Amino acid sequence: xxxEEIKDALVQFEGVERRFEIIGEEQGIMIVDDYAHHxxxxxxxxxxxxxxxxxxxxxVFQPHLFSRTAQFYREFARVLSLADVVVVTDVxxxxxxxxxxxxxxxxxxxxxxxGYWVKEKNEIPVFLKSKLKRGDVVIFLxxxxxxxxxxxxxEALKREPVRK
Length: 164
Description:
Blueprint: H1 3-12, E1 21-26, E2 29-34, H2 39-52, E3 57-61, H3 66-80, E4 85-88, H4 105-108, E5 114-117, H5 124-129, E6 137-141, H6 147-159
Parallel strand pairs: 2-6, 3-4, 3-6, 4-5
Antiparallel strand pairs: 1-2
Helix pairs in contact: 2-3
């Protein structure tokens, strides 16, 4: 294979869906979706954002599985604290039944950065608009349906300007 063929293929490569997928940019705010749902994946994604962009990073995290949340909530809080601002929502109901006392708030309570617990994920776009600044990178993290809120935020930013 010739170098030019390789170069052309790389230029055309669009990446993998839900892996640091740029959903859009509006008002100078970039919105990214990533399937990261384990502490090592979350850490890799946030480090990439912090090192790759000279911008404030806002992470929105939806834990996936009650058992994983119970096992790794401390690690999630540690790696999410790499972001400048963190919003944690409740655990995505996947293949497990809820475990008593296991919620996303367990993670939010241990954050070492500006962090918020927003139980209802549908409230996240409105909540975020009051926190966002032009130039931010907002990364939606999780294997559940949190990416729906990324699209909702993008639409909200198209309709109404941010205050900061």
